[in-house]
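Researcher: Good morning. I'm working through a list of sequences from a screen, and I'd like to move beyond sequence-only analysis. For each chain I'm collecting a predicted structure so we can compare shapes side by side. This is the next one on the list. No need for commentary yet; just the structure.
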Amino acid sequence: MSDQLAEEKNTVKIKQTKISELEECLRKKDSEKEHLKSIVVDFTTVQNLQVQIEELKSVNESLNFSVEELCKARALAEATLRERDELISALCEKMRLLEEQFESFYEVKSEFDLEIVHDTQDNSEKI
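Model: Good morning. Structure tokens for this chain:
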């Protein structure tokens, strides 16, 4: 009976050891499971970041296109303004020349008018 009791105690110890090993194995699996969960979360985060990067690349391309279009528009506006300034300068020069001609014409006319007045005065005195 004592042999049988010793054998049963030994069997219980073996079973307890196996239970302890299984519990340890379960703890490791839980730990691995948590680690895998964090890896899945990290992977999801990476995927989200990749989507955001692609969206930002698209926005960047759009902005680059807009900048190019604005540069073209600016160059066109600058060319238009240069042409306008040249036209204004040419018109100002024409006006200056016309003013000079008008002043010369006015001076001649004034002298002519004075002569007529003198002639009229001279004629009136003779009569």
